[in-house]
Every structure is written in structure tokens, then in C-alpha cells.
């Protein structure tokens, strides 16, 4: 089954890439600082175009299937970056997520909001049990993003990869379905506290809207005792 759809939250929308987004994607995917921790070279314009347009339809059934979303700002439709989910193990409902944003849009919480929107979708509509991220141990911005999402450090792999001449070490961060909502509620509680000093920005009022509604994945067997839930609609 394949389909395309959009996830919308306060400030951003996650949607399939179109021709309209390509110039902006080609710009940030070509930057050395963006590719620095990705264990590959910056992308050529051809590779950027091909990979954007190859993953537009939802096929999330077999190991390795990817959902790639362009992240656009709602107010002006500007492309901010992208988030991706890869189905690692359908039987155990294990999904890997990742993110790449234009440095020009950094530092305003857009990546956090987009990743949180994606997590909300994966835990509700895709029945994820565990969502994880792998990141270079030197990628401090990505590590802080995982922690803002309420993900736990699960592993610190030492020199498990090579990045050119450099031995690369990685962190694995993860969050379980049963941990996701409490983690978000706790953050909002901290941010709502009267001192206002715990977080320098207001809490996200998340309401993910999906257009069109996804089909709850019935083809993936649920672990016993689990029931699929419909995604919350505002
Ligand atoms: C990883 C990456 C997406 C993080 O981007 P980012 O701009 O730090 O993340 P956000 O957009 O969520 O912004 C968060 C920052 O904005 C601040 N911020 C401001 N307003 C905010 C708000 N409303 N909500 C949340 N954070 C807010 C946060 O305090 C945070 O700053 P800090 O990291 O200095 O503490 C980005 O660095 C990137 O694309 N890197 C290159 C690609 C890459 O390495 N990808 C990861 C591979 S594993």
C-alpha cells in the first residue's frame, strides 16, 4: 500500500518532497557542515533530487522502508529541513528516525517540533514500540535534540565506524511508546512552571493533524495486549 500525506503541527508541516522544495534541499545538502556527522560526503544536486523524489510515497511495511518528509514552515511554506523514519524491524515495531536541517533555520526549535510531530505519528498511527536514533558522539546538537524529545541514551559505541580518516563513535538514543507521552507531559509541566527559568521558550502545544487520515497498519502483528490507537485530531 502506498499513499502520501501531510503531518501538521503548530509551526511546521511534514510533507512529501516536491519539485518546489528541491533548490532549498540542494543548498543545505551540499554544505560540508551539514554532512559533517553523516558519514558521507555532501550530496550532489543530482543525488539530492533523486533521493527526495524517490521517497514520496508511503511504503512502510518491510525492513528498510523509509518515510522521508520535507519540513516546511507553516507561515511562509519555506523548506526548513527534513526528517526521516526507517522501519528497522516490523515484527518488533522498531523504527529509526533522523533529521537534517538547513543551518539557516537552526536554533529556533523547528527540528525539535518536527521530530516530535514525527514521533507522535509513529507511536499513534504506525504502532511503533521503540523509536531510536544513532548519532555521532561529537554531534552535540543532535544529542541535545534527542534529550529534548525525552529519548534515553541507550548505548555509547566506541570507534564502531570510520568517517574518512577518523574513527567514529556513536550514541544510540531511544524512546518507548509508553515513555513518550509522560516525557512530553513532564516537559510541558516544567515549561509551564511559574519561575519560567527552566526553559527559555514556551511549551509546544502539539496537535498533529494528518491529511488524509492514515490507515492504521493492520498488516503488522501487534504484540499481545497492544491495540492500535487512532491519531489525535484537533
Ligand atoms: C541536528 C540538528 C537538526 C539540530 O538543529 P537545532 O537547530 O539545534 O535544533 P532545533 O531546531 O530543535 O533548535 C533547538 C535549539 O533552539 C533553541 N530553541 C529556541 N526556541 C525553541 C523552541 N521553541 N523549542 C525548542 N528549542 C528552541 C533550543 O534551546 C536549542 O538550542 P541549543 O541546542 O543551543 O540548546 C542540526 O544541527 C542539523 O541538521 N545538523 C546537521 C545534520 C545532522 O547532523 N543530523 C543528525 C544526524 S544523526
TrEMBL record:
Q: Name one GO molecular function term.
A: protein-N-terminal-alanine acetyltransferase activity
Coiled-coil regions listed in the entry: none
| Pfam families assigned | Acetyltransf_3
- Name the UniProt key words of this record, in alphabetical order: Transferase
Alphabetical list of InterPro entries matching this protein: Acyl_CoA_acyltransferase, GNAT_dom, Ribosomal_N-acetyltransferase
- Keyword Nucleotide-binding annotated: no
Gene3D superfamilies of this UniProt entry?
3.40.630.30
Q: Which GO terms describe its cellular component?
A: cytoplasm
* UniProt-recorded name of the protein: N-acetyltransferase
Per the UniProt record, the source organism is Arthrobacter psychrochitiniphilus
Highest lineage ranks of the organism? Answer: Bacteria, Bacillati, Actinomycetota, Actinomycetes, Micrococcales
Amino acid at each position: 500500500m502506498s499513499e502520501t500525506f501531510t503531518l501538521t503541527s503548530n509551526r511546521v508541516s511534514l510533507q512529501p518532497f516536491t519539485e518546489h522544495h528541491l533548490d532549498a534541499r540542494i543548498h543545505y545538502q551540499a554544505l560540508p557542515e551539514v554532512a559533517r556527522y553523516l558519514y558521507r560526503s555532501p550530496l550532489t544536486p543530482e543525488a539530492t533530487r533523486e533521493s527526495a523524489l524517490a521517497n514520496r510515497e508511503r511504503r512502510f511495511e518491510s525492513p528498510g522502508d523509509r518515510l522521508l518528509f520535507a519540513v516546511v514552515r507553516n507561515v511562509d511554506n519555506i523548506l526548513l529541513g527534513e526528517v526521516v523514519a526507517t522501519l528497522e524491524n516490523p515484527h518488533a515495531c522498531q523504527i529509526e528516525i533522523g533529521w537534517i536541517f538547513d543551518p539557516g533555520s537552526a536554533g529556533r526549535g523547528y527540528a525539535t517540533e518536527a521530530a516530535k510531530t514525527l514521533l507522535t505519528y509513529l507511536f499513534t498511527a504506525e504502532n511503533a514500540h521503540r523509536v531510536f536514533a544513532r548519532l555521532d558522539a561529537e554531534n552535540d546538537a543532535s544529542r541535545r535534540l534527542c534529550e529534548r524529545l525525552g529519548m534515553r541514551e541507550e548505548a555509547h559505541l566506541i570507534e564502531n565506524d570510520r568517517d574518512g580518516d577518523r574513527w567514529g563513535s556513536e550514541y544510540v538514543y531511544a524512546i518507548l511508546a509508553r515513555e513518550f507521552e509522560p516525557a512530553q507531559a513532564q516537559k510541558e509541566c516544567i515549561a509551564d512552571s511559574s519561575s519560567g527559568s527552566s526553559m527559555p521558550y514556551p511549551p509546544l502545544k502539539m496537535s498533529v493533524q494528518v491529511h488524509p487520515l492514515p490507515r492504521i497498519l493492520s498488516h503488522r502483528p501487534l504484540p499481545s495486549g497492544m491495540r492500535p490507537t487512532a491519531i489525535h485530531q484537533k
